[in-house]
Amino acid sequence: MKSINNYIISIISILIVLSLIEIILRIKGDLPRDSNFKINKNNEPVVYQEDSKIGWIHKPGNYTFAPWSKEGKYTNFKVNDDLSRSTYYKSKKNNNIFFIGGSLTQGWAVDDKDNYVSLFQKEFTNYRVKNYGVGGYGGYQSLLLLEKVIKNSNNLSHVFYGFIPHHEVRNVAAGSWVSFLNKHSRRGHTSVPYASIDKAGNLLRYQPSDYLKIHFGNKSSLITKIEKRIMKIRSKRREVKQVDISKKIIEEMKNVSEKKGAKFHIILINKIKEENLNNYNNFFNNKKISVANCQVPEGSGFNIIGEGHPNRKAYMIVKNCLSNYFKKIIKN
What is the pTM of this model? Predict the structure, then answer.
């Protein structure tokens, strides 16, 4: 009888401790896992569809987003049948330029005609510009999409990759990134493909990985905490090598582009930490990769109010910088 009582006391003690941990976590703001399906409170259009290899891709169609603030306006977002975002301005030329990257290249939250890729097309009418930037993409997903769309492309002369430092985290499907997508993404799915490298420096490719969901994780802050910890442990080894992995992905982009006879360019569209910048510059020089340092300006007046992504004014600055770079390239 005594042993039974001790067993019951132990169980009750464990339950009390777990309950206290649960309460403390909630007081600190660590709430139970939520699903990204619930985030879309404003019924915003979903411009993506699931893809078994790339995770998600654009969904062809015409979409309209309501203003993100009282000062804002309605935003038109068109996806072409070839999965590119409309550049609004037309060109009848067959000399193609592809842009790949994440939401800054895609031009999230601004009209079709207002992102830097469309503004670039407006100026360089002798080229047909294709915008294959996709929200949430890192370098690896951009590489996969490039490989997909480049197969049937003809007369491709240039490929531009809009690089930001956070692509390093996305390339390896870091636990923090997958967790963020599950909580904040409005696309309805968060399976992320990722890459690594072997001891010889070869690129290793992995299929999309889902956010880890343990039973009752949507009810318990403690279980949600455990989910996140497991995700971080799983990706820790890749995260240590994320810069080298990112460089290898960029090298693959260059190889894929050049096999099609296209020149490959990097756009440094966000500021890179000084300690990493020298590393990347040495890599770019060694691999003979052309670089356009055209960063999105920061500060008041350059963001969509109520949303946060760059506005037309910011993208115009990027376009002007890129325009000057490109004129020098084609002149030479």
Answer: 0.90
